[in-house]
Amino acid sequence: MKISTDYKTDNYNIYVEDNALNKYLTEYTARYSSVFYLVDSHVYQLHQDILLSSIDAPILLSPGESCKTVESYARTIEELIERGIKRNSLIVAIGGGATGDLAGFIAATILRGVDYIHVPTTVLAHDSAVGGKTAINVPSGKNLIGSFYRPQCVIMDTLFFNTLPDDELLSGYAEVFKHAMLNSEEEADRLMTLHNKAIDIDRLSESIEMGIKTKLRFVNKDEHESNERRYLNLGHTLGHALELNNKLFHGHAVMFGMLYALYVSNQLNQKDIFDVSRYATYFQSIGLDFSKIEDTAFEDLLKYLLKDKKNTTENLISFVLLSNYGECYVKDLSIEEVKKYYTTFNEMLIKDV
Ligand SMILES: O=C(O)C(=O)C[C@@H](O)[C@H](O)[C@H](O)COP(=O)(O)O
Q1: Which of 132, 163, 194 is the last residue of a domain?
Q2: Mutation test of ligand 1: which of 5, 175, 233 has the most ligand atoms closer than 8 Å to its C-beta?
Q3: Which domain holds residue 19?
Q4: Would residue 199 be called left, alpha or beta, if left means φ above 0 and alpha means ψ between -120 and 50 degrees?
């Protein structure tokens, strides 16, 4: 399947299919005199003999978020310069969202910008590889350094999914589910039917297609996130805080963050538009472990909440909320309000799940 962006210029293709890497990569690499592969070391270890057998002299990155540090950024830049990268070279990022975020940021900044391609190997990266956000972390928070920088293409080879652990699969599915909530109740119901009790890997491509198309609707309108693109951050305010504080998988944290956002939306709308308990029970039935957030003190999350990139006013925390399915808005809440809802939200979860 091929999906294309719809900007005024410099559009790129997103391929999602089995064997996509073999099918499309050389068409792009052939245009450059030198190509540098930045590959998640774990992915390379698993796939070097078959899917990645043609990848020449990869630079291996530490797996997951651990590669998104300032140190790893500087080290990899040094290595690329030593290997002779030029302005007309190509960087190919092969790995999950973290690899893509780091490699994209390197591509955006090395020699003031070289072309790059995303080869996402996780379900989660259907999200991060699309839209041109690149980033690294600092101790105060996630993705606090970064840029918007479009790739030349995204090649999502779904054969990589076969080796994904269940926790990673669930993490990626969280963003697919978020995209459904940004569409309609029917889309969320469809996912819950398609992936009832467990994530069905054979039906993931169609769910990912829905996810990417939804995401592009927002990105095409507001690439640099001054307005509608912020809605893609549904679940991420509390999500990023839980991810860092409780050391959760990104998507697992986003699932909790989404439940909280739906709960707060109901409170502010003064009607139960969203059946939060139903979604919580569903998330639990497909593997979300609620014990991972039990007893998390609000005060431990607060320092992260106050550093959220969406915040614009001192001591107010910005949340993406919904007045209905697909109808988002950004609301600044005081610390007291966030805490109050956090307490009652936890009580509801303990009672209902
Ligand atoms: O692409 C976007 O815009 C998003 O917000 C998508 C998020 O799901 C994704 O996790 C993103 O990387 C988070 O970005 P951040 O700007 O909140 O760090």
Answers
A1: 163
A2: 233
A3: 2-163
A4: beta
